[in-house]
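Sequence of N-(5'-phosphoribosyl)anthranilate isomerase (Pseudomonas panipatensis).
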Amino acid sequence: MAAVRIKICGITRVEDALAAAEAGADAIGLVFYAKSPRAVSVQQARAIVAALPPFVTSVGLFVDASRCELGEILDAVPLDMLQFHGNETAEACSGYHRPYLKALRVKPGDDIAARAAEYPGAAGILLDTYVEGVPGGTGAAFDWSLIPHDLRRPLVLAGGLHAGNVQQAIRQVRPYAVDVSGGVEASKGIKDAEKIRAFVRQCRAADGQSESM
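Predicted 3D structure, token representation.
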């Protein structure tokens, strides 16, 4: 099994982005959704992206943003990848000259494979927990047994992950990547460097890698 990739989402401070990078995270997420307690301004995002070391991917999270709004943000912030958490169509997710992830919120009875197939251009499919009226960042896990084996896209597992359950999640689901936000926070939008390190350690333990790697 290849090493699972790790994304630390909801970054609002340069020091938290650097803590994630130093711990071994592959990507950090920046939330461009005003209703989120983890939302960042363009100025914050620019400073965070500028501080990132090489080979750490910056991901911008959007919820039903207009093409005008998204274009203005991309003109100002050199994001590497986009992540769509709303009701965006495949057409709405494309055309930005960047790879994108499409987030799907999971609840019993969903045909996840069929929904994922609606986004053939997605670099990956992110599965999160369905909570009515909340597009993501709920801190709640969903039933991983609902995940189909025929997504045909790299799977990013999100929703209620933390150091105490991520090793089990990786071994059960075998995702391409895991995405955590609330599970490594001191408070909403403020990360805890030790929680980040503990999360990464548990991911690597699931991979069978030593902490020294």
